[in-house]
Amino acid sequence: MKTTTIVGIFDNARDLDRAVDRLARAGFEDTVYDEGIVAEETGNVGTIFAPGYAPAAYWGNTERDLKPKLDRHANARAFRAHLAEYHLPKNVIEGYVTNFDHDGEFVLVKTSPERAEQALEIMRTSGATRANRHD
User: Minimal CB count within 10 Å: which of 31, 39, 62, 106?
Assistant: First the structure.
């Protein structure tokens, strides 16, 4: 089956959350990339990849969680590697990595070409600063 990748770029978490919610309700599976949280798996929505920064976690005591965090270069390499799995052109990947490195938040959706316009419209009406289609 041929797939199309839709990439939405967001400037804030509120718009990103709105898009993810609307995409899920429409039956799309997506992957979210955000600088604000630690990398972890989520149930319905896909993978949340959040390099670099995470607030200190406190679990039952007041001692800080001192787990090492990835540096910016490691974040960029990991994001670049994941984008390569979507079979995007190298120059497109480099542009996205630059935006990601400057705190861009991304939602990627793999879908059929027939449903691609619906995913684009959801991202645009949810506040994406940019939404691109890659066939």
Answer: 62
